Amino acid sequence: MAIKEKMQPIQSNEEIIEVRKKHFLPTAFLYYKTPVQLVKAKGNYVYDEKGNEYLDAIGGIVCISAGHNHPKIKEALLEMLNNDEIQHTSTIFLNQHITNLAKKIIAEAPKKIDRCSFTNSGSEANELAMMAARHATGETMIVNLRHGYHGGTGATLSSCGQHSWRFKAQPVASVTSALEPYCYRCPFNQKPESCHLECAKNVETTIQTSTHGKIAAFIAEPILGVGGFITPPKEYFHEVAKIVHNYGGQYISDEVQTGAGRSGGNFLHTKDLEIDADMVTMAKGFGNGAAIGATLMKSDIAESLAGKVHFNTFGGDPYQTVQALKTMEIIEEENLIENARIMGEYLMDSLKGLMKKHKLIGEIRGKGLLVGIELVKDQKTKEYAAEECKELMELCKNKGLLIGKGGLFGNVVRLAPALSINKKQIDFLVKVIDESLRELDKK
User: Fold this and answer.
1) pLDDT, tens digit, for every residue of 97-139?
2) Domain count, the chain
3) Do 359 and 411 have their domain in common?
4) Do 329 and 356 fall within a single domain?
5) What is the pTM of this model?
6) Fewer CB within 10 Å: C terminus or N terminus of the chain?
7) Structural domain contains residue 51
C-alpha cells in the first residue's frame, strides 16, 4: 500500500528513537532489534513508513477485534465530527451514547450482573472492581494468582504476578498470591490424568494461611494473558468461585484480554466457563483500539457504593462509547465470534502440526483467537527459550508477520489477530512461523 502524499512528513526511525531516549521513561520498551514504525492500518494489516505490509497477528496488542479502521466505525466517527457532536461530557451530564452502550454490554453480561461503569483502560476497570469489593465486603485482602497481570496502576500492580512488571516501591499490603493454574508447568507436578485441582484448592489454603479468614475479593483472568495465555481447565474456576464465596469474597473475572468474543464462544468468556462471578472487567478489544474499559457488577455491590462519589473524567465520553458500541454491533452483524471459533480451531490444529517438526515448541494452548506457543530449549526439561522467542519474532517480522510475546521469562509467542482473520491469512501466519522456526533449528 502506497503512503498517500497528503500525510504529514514522516520522521525517520532514528529521529523517533532519539526523542524517545531523551524524553520517554526507560520503561517504554520496543519490540524488535530493528523497531518498526507503523503509520497506516486496514483490516488485518498494518504498514510501516516505507509502505511495507505486515499481517497483524497480535491485534494491536490484543486491542483490535473488528479489524483496523473498520469502515462502519470510521463512518460513525466522521458523522459525529461533521455534526459537531460534543467530544467530552463525563457522566455529570446526560448523553445517549453512554446509555446505549450500557444497555448493550449488560445484555452480554452473566446473570445477575446488571450495573456498569466505563473507564479509560483495563487497569482502571480493575482498580474500580477491587475498590468496590473492599467497600462492599468491609474487608481489604485481595487474592491474586502468580503469573497474573491486571494493569499498571497502584492496586493492579500490587496484584501482579510477574517480577519484571513490579517496582521496588510497589505497595503490596492487603494482597496475597495463590499458585498458578499452569497445566504445562504444574506447580504440583501433576498430569491431566492425575490432576485433582490442587491449584484450585490452593486458593483456600492461601486464604487460610495468608489472611485472617475473610477476603474482599479474588481476581483472575479466564486465560492469563501477559502470563503467556495460560489456559486453566473449566473446572478450576467452578471450584475457586465456591471457595471465594465461602470466605466472604467477591469473584472478579478480568476479561481485559479475553472479552469481546475473542474466545469464540460468548462475548464474555466468563459465560463460556460458567464462572459464578460478581464482577467482570474488560477493555482492549471492547473498543477496537479506543481508550475505553468497563467494570460490570451485581446490584448489591453497586448499591454498597451509594453515598460516595466516584468520578472518571474521561470515562464514557461520546466518541469512545460510540466506537465500543459500533464494535459490538460489527462483531454481531459479521458473525465474528463464530469466525473466531472456527479460525481459532484451524489455527490451533495447524500449529500443533508444527510441533512434530520443531523441537522448540513445548506447548500450543489457548481458546478461540487467543493462542500461545510456549518455546523451550528442551521438551523434557522445559527450559525457557527466551532468546529464541526474540529471534523468532524478528524473523517473522522480516517476513511480514507481527506476533507478540509473553510469559514470566518472555518465551511464549502470543497470537491474537482480529476476529475477522480468514483461512488464507492463517495459512500465511503458520507458513511464516514454520519457515522462521526452521531457520532457528539450523542455528
Assistant:
1) 999 999 999 999 999 999 999 999 999 999 999 999 999 999 9
2) 2
3) yes
4) no
5) 0.96
6) C
7) yes
Give residue for cell 492469563: 224
- pLDDT tens for residues 229-243? 999 999 999 999 999
Say if residue 401 is exposed, middle or buried (CB neighbours under 10 Å; 0-12, 13-18, 19+): buried
> CATH number, domain at 36?
3.90.1150.10
What's the first-to-final CA gap in the chain, in angstroms? Answer: 34
Looking at the structure, tell me whether residues 286 and 324 fall in a common domain: yes
Q: State the residue range of the domain holding 271.
A: 75-333
